[in-house]
Design brief:
Helices cover about 10% and strands about 35% of the residues. The protein is mainly β and about 140 residues long.
Length: about 140
């Protein structure tokens, strides 16, 4: 059992490290003004910079044979707090979240996903983690 836990931990670490990167750039392109968001980030983005008062939309797409991402959470709600997105109707396999920058600081927005397994079948024991570093400037 101990070897299995060690192998699972190594596999998890390898998957998590393999997903770390800088995404499409240091700062995603601002989203169209008509949607009410100043910045949009996807699972390919890993860092964004925004100003206090701006709104962030996080759009995460589930990978092949993976369950939907958990709801993204801010590590410090005094800097970046979740808001209700009245237009949020996600397609199957898409997780949406909206945030508003309250004050200067740096926070992590995190979410997790795991394998999609048919009921009653053996399932690999691993998870993947998504982390978006959000820097809020005055």
């Amino acid at each position: 059992m101990g070897k299995f836990v060690l192998v699972a931990a190594i596999a998890l670490l390898a998957v998590a490290c393999g997903s770390a990167g800088t995404g499409g750039g240091a700062n995603p392109t601002p989203s169209p003004g008509g949607l009410g968001f100043d910045v949009t980030a996807t699972e390919k983005d890993h860092a964004v910079t925004m100003h206090a008062g701006q709104k962030l939309e996080v759009v995460l797409h589930a990978g092949n044979a993976m369950v939907n991402w958990s709801h993204p959470m801010s590590s410090d709600t005094s800097v970046l707090s979740a808001i209700v997105d009245p237009a949020a109707t996600a397609a199957r396999g898409v997780t949406l979240a909206a945030f508003e920058a309250k004050k200067s600081g740096q926070v992590q927005v995190t979410s997790t996903s795991g394998p999609l397994c048919p009921s009653g079948s053996m399932c690999p024991m691993y998870a993947i983690a998504y982390t978006l570093t959000v820097t809020v400037t005055p």
